[in-house]
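Quick one, tokens below:
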């Protein structure tokens, strides 16, 4: 269906050379659209997957617990 829409008719009515040109054009456009999206990432912001975000939170909580433990151990 996508190929038919790209040809303005049916893909079967095109010659082999025309079909190759159409498919090459589609793949080039698809590559550029994915490539362009990757470049629009805002500077200073890093996307994390869920597991990485949880690990980062775990590390911060561990550091806070260690700091509290040190303060408690210094109490008289």
């Amino acid at each position: 269906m996508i190929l038919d829409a790209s040809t303005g008719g049916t893909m079967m009515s095109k010659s082999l050379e025309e079909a190759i040109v159409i498919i090459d054009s589609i793949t080039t456009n698809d590559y550029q659209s994915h490539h362009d999206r990757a470049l629009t990432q805002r500077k200073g912001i890093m996307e994390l997957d869920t597991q990485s975000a949880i690990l980062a939170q775990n590390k911060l909580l561990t550091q806070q617990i260690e700091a509290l433990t040190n303060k408690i151990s210094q109490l008289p």
